[in-house]
Each structure stands twice: as structure tokens, then as C-alpha cells.
Amino acid sequence: MTVSALKAKDYKSGIKPVWCPGCGHFSVLAAATKALAYLGLPKEQVAVISGIGCSSRLPAYIDSYGFHGVHGRALPVAAGLKAARPDLTVIVAGGDGDGFSIGGNHFLHACRRNMDMTYIVMDNKVYGMTKGQASPTTDPEWSASKMTPHGTGVRRFLPAAIALAAGASFIARGFAGDPSGLTKLLVEAIEHPGFAFLEVLSPCQTFRPEQKDWKNQVHPMGAHPSGDAVEAARAIQADDGMALGVLYADRLPVWQPAYEPRDSLEAIEKEFRV
Amino acid sequence: MNAVSPAARQNLSVAITGSGGSGAVTTGLILLKAAASTGFYGLMTRSAGPQIRGGESAAMLRFGPERVDCMDDRFDLLLGIDWLNVDRFVDEIPLGPDSLVVGNAAAGDVPEILAAGGARVRSFDFNALAAGVKGGRANMVALGILGSACGLPPAAMEAGVRSVLAEKGDAVVTSSLTCVMAGYDQDMVSVTVAPAPREERGNRWDISGNEACGLGALRGGIRFVAAYPITPASEMLEWMAPRLELLGGSLLQAEDELASVNMIIGASFGGVPSLTATSGPGLSLMVEGMGLAVASETPAVVVDVMRGGPSTGIPTKSEQSDLNLALYGFHGDAPHLVLAPVSIADGAFTTQWAVYLAEHLQTIAIVLSDQALGQSRSVTDEPREPANLLVRRTEHSPVDDYHRYAISDDGISAMTAPGTPGGMYTADGLEHNEKGTPSSMALDHELQMAKRLRKIESFDFGSDWAEIRGEGPLCIVTWGSVSGAVFEAVDRLAATGVDVRVLALRLLAPLRRDALGTALEGVGQLWVVEQNHSGQLYHYLQGAGVLPAGSRSVARPGPLPLRPGEVVDVILDDAGTGEDK
Asked: Does residue B292 belong to the interface with chain A, where contact is any CB pair within 8 Å?
């Protein structure tokens, strides 16, 4: 796409985000526009799909086609769109509650269906838009929510491990505090043929201020796991959830219906004639 | 008992029962094809228990020289390949003193309960007759006996066998034909009541309700389907899957109904007309997504093949009890379309029209079919198509300041498809302004709600909103699968000089108040006939204030089909005394 003169700012819609000052999601928005500019994708060929939550506001802030659907159902909207319009670059965005709780079943099946799309989950381990409840990725002892004053007492959902088990063909983790690393991962995810899952550690300044310390906790994944799912599973399970980089990537069969009309409606109607 | 007897014997009603695997449904299917090839019209419904194998099943047929759109009050002939669990069908297969019951001597005596009404009984040893044929089956012997009893010529029986069994190979066809003739040669003449052969053979179709809805969808331009398997809608999806591929479309089997409805919204957003099909439990899950289609103004069609409810209910049997859910199931104010076919073949017209309307009005259209339509086959006239093509209003070269949800006189705003330069927008289930930007401002909410209502309320739906017949001060308003029984009841009443007008509503939402008012002018006594427990249509019409005082609800739940004689009784009882009940 040498003709593309689009810069990152050209992919911004100009609508002012609803996010709190210092929210990690600003960094994800910036990385997304940079990745789109780097790839030189025509704006009208990109569709950004989301559900409900702070992070799900992303589509309106990108100047492309977008669909801001209902809570937890972004992946099915994206699957239908990609099935019908394989020519589009489909990016799905959401949060940990939207993707792993109410949308958990869709996440499993989107992984195994392996359609060619990118799924960015901005994980801040809290429901922000409903004012600070525990999400599936929240630590069991986190007791700052009025709804679970003693903590959830329930073990954390492990997004990368579950994505791997469910059949995702690309799994990576980025950090909002590392914008250039995040942009690079996003480019790789979009370029990956198949379902690319990108978990982004994106701190919530309002309800999880302690996440400011994430910048001291993240670390590189280190040795790049091959496309070997067993090795990747070992590395992901051994990790503390703060390792950044590509965790797994393989070429797996991509589900995409073919569109080649071979017959007419008249021919189909013949079967009914007595 | 009503004073009106069925019109002169014009058609035959035949029931075939047997335990699962006995081939009762296949036998019925072949008999229907044989009747069709003789030049008759026909109808075959089926009933089954919940078991996949080893349960009980029954095929119920009615055929003759005139169109048949419902089952008769009684069956002329009941044949049991065996009598296992036949007690479960006694209610569904009413017999009278003129009925004939044919049993398989090898399967034991005909149960007392079947002959209780005075029906005549004959027995043949199907198994012994089949044993003489290599690969012979008792149900093919039964088929021959039925063909003979119904006066269908041997050539028609052969045509039926070939059309249904050809795919099983020559050996099966040959042994089946031998068995059929062994049964055919049994002495049945003395008990035969055959309809007169039909001289003129028009352009007739042989189609099920599920197939008809599938065909209507394809005719309407549906090229993407996402769905989750559910009885009794799965056959529509199974019929569509390979045919969508032939036409360059596709079907995606979703993980659940929450997914399937959102998938079709995504595909439709991409510019491809899209549909899903389900039954009550699935429709319940889809309510959330259907609301999104309304709010985001994304066209989509949901076909609900209704079954007995609530909850899991009676998956294999029919009921018209999802009307309330279809009308009122949405949170917020969510104007949308609800339609229902008035016959099996009308599934094609109504679904095609639903696609057109959903596309043009950019909203969700729910089509309420049911098990009685979906899983029944009709040999009938070729289904017609809507007179006017309606399409989605699109914008291929939008101006700089494209407003997806622009306020317009008719409420419809042009919808760009992804890939269109300059037409970018974000579709939203959040309330939004004309641009599509989320907004919680009172004015935007008011304007957008009015727009979404106006586009539907102000649209000219033409004359297809109802099938209207007859005139006079007596009137029945009905809908969906029971319309056939109502029309036949009214024909019987007319033959005795009692004229009743019928309105079978095809468009249930938006309710055409003005047109309904005009159609009901001069009505003094009115019955709302439907197959559910609470009178859902009756209360909907009462709420809309369109019914004359004293209108009466005639509602009873499934799964027993409504029979024309029941409707005749109600009208004569009420009209005869001049009292409203």
C-alpha cells in the first residue's frame, strides 16, 4: 500500500473518549491507529466491532466502519460480518468482563472457529463502567467492590491458557504502558491469518489505582514459544500473567465460507413441482 | 355435535401409526406422493414423541381433488403398522362409526379403544406378506393396502415409491414395489371410499412449511444464515444450508442463539440480507439481539417455528403461544415487524415479504410459523410472490457529512455498507444522534425513537396484511396455522346458509388499525380463534381497541390441531342463541 498517505491521526474519528484521565485505553486507541496507518489499510475496509464496557467504546473513536453492539456479543457480530464480507479487516475490541464473563462462550467458539480477525481485550480486572465490580480476571481476595466485600473467592480466569485450549491460532499479551510494543503486537495480530487474540494489560486508574505499579511488574516473555501448543501451554501456565509478547502462533485451518454461486433459484424451485 | 356435516365426501383422511423405525412417516410420505401424482391436492402432518429412535410416530394425511389446508374432524382410515404406544395418539386421531381401522395381525389385536366409537376393523398379516419378498418390509405391505383402500392406481403407487426411495437404491425400490403390490392385491374393495379422480392437473407444488419459509427467504435475497439447532426449526436450516451454497451464500452453525442473532446482525451490517430460524426457547434468547437490530436499525429476519411452551414445553408438537413474546418481548420501545403465514405454502410468500420489509424498513422481522406448518407437507398451488420488490436504501457515494441515522420524512435513512468510502459510521445499540454518536440527550432520544416508529407506522403495507374472505355481521379473526381450519369451517357454514367473514392476519405488528377498522365494518359478532391457552391475539386486539363489544376469545392450547368442526360448533352455538359468552 505505497499509495497510502494516511497517518495515525487520520484514523481518529475526533469524538472525545468517555474514558477517565490516565486510562490505559487511550494508549490502545493510539496503538490501533498507528497499526492501521502502518499497515496502510483503507479506512472503509476496516470494521471495528465491540460489546459493552469502557473499552468497548473504541469503535466510535476510530474513523472506520464500526459496530457497538450489546454486552458480550461482539465476537458473534464480528463472525457474521467476516463470514459475509471476507474482504474486510475485522478488529474486535472489549474488556475482561465483556469477553470472559458474559461473552465467555462466544470467546471459546471464536477461538476454535479461527476466523481471520483480531480480538483485543483490554484487561483491567474490573468492571469500570458499572463502577468497580470484580471481573473474571480479578484476584479472588480483591475486596474493594461493595458487591463482593470479602473478595470473590473464585480463582482467576486465565485468558491466554483458555484461548490456547480453545484453539486460537495467535495469542499475545501487550501492555498499555508500552505503546510501541503494543503497536508492534497489534500489527502482528492483524497480519496473522486466523483468530488473533491480543490481551492488553490496560490499567484502570479509577477503580484499580494499584495497577499503576504494573509498569514494574510486566516483563518480556523471553524465549519465543514455537507453534508447539504443548510448549506454549507450559510457558503460559508457568507465567505470572504479566509476561509480554507473542505467547503462541501457529497456522491453523481458518474458517471462511466460499462464495461461488453455482445454480439459480429457478433450479432450486424445480424440486417442489409435482 | 354440530348440525353441519362435512361437504359431500370429497377427500380422504388417513392416519398411519407405528413405533419408531416402523416406517410410518415414510409410508405416509409415499402415499402423499402417490396421491399427488394422481392429480390430487393433499396435506400430511406428523406427530412424534420425544424419542429419537424407538418412540412412537404417526403420519396423518388428507387428500382430494380440492385444496386441503387442514385436517378433517375425523379419520376415514387408521392403519397401524404396530400398536406400540398407540394410546398416546388416540386424542390426535379421532375416529367415527364410519371409520375403518386396519391392523397388522402379526402385531396383535387392534386395541379396544380404537374400535370403541364403532369403527370397523380389518386385519392382515403384513409381516407374513412381507416375508415372501427378499428385503421386504411390513410398512410397504401396509402402503399397498392403503393405496388399494384409497383407490389410488398402481402406477401412482409406483411413482410415489420411486420418488421417495430412489436414493436408497434399486434393490430397495424393487423389493418395496413387490411388497406394495402384495398389499395392494388384498381384498379391500368392500371398505373403500375413494375420492373421484381429478381431471385437470394444474401447476401444483409439494412443499413443507419449513421448506416454504426457506424458499421465501432465498427468494427474498437472504444469503447468510446463522443458527443453532432446535426442534422443529432445524429442517428449515438443513434445507437451506446446501441451497444457500448453490446461490453463493452460506450458513454458519452458531454456538447458541445469542450468537446466531448477533451473527446475522453482523452479516447484515456488512450488506448481506440475513436470517436465522429457531423455536420458542431460542427466540427467548434472541430477544436481546433483536432489540439491538431495532436500535441500530440493522435489517434481519427471525423465523420462529413455534412449539408447545412454556420453557422446553412440547418440542415436537405445535402451539401458537409465542405471539406475546414476539410482540412484547423487547425492553424499551422497540418498533418492529411480526408476521405469520396463513398456510404451509404461504410460508414462502410471508417470509419473502418479511425479508423485503425488514430490508426496506431496517428493522427486525419475526415470522411466526409453527410445528403444524413447518413439519407438514402440502400438495398445493404454486406459492405466489409479493408484487413489489422492496430493497434496502443504500448510499454508494455519500457526501462528506454522511449521517447514518438522519431524520427523514419517512423515517428511513440510507445505510452504507462497509467498503464504501466516505460512508463510515459506527452502528450503535446505545441511543445516538443522527451521526451515530452515542447520546443520552433527551432530544436525540425523542427524535430517534420517533424516526424508528415512523418508518414502520407510516409505511404503506398494501393489501397483504391479511387474507380476507366473506362478508356479513359474523366475523372470525384468526392467524397462522389455524387459519386453514377456520377457512374450511366457514365454507361448511356457508353451505348451510350461515355466512361468516374471516380475517386471517398476516401482519401482526404493526397492527393495521385503520385497515382493520374498515375490514370489520358492519360486524356485530366476532370471534378471535387461536391455538394458545390465554388468548394472546384476542388480548392484543382488545388492547388496541379494534374489536366490537362482546367479541369472544376462542383459544385453546396445542398440541391437538384445531379441527374445522370445532369452529363450526362454536359459531352455531353462539350465533344460534345470539348470546356472547
From this structure: yes
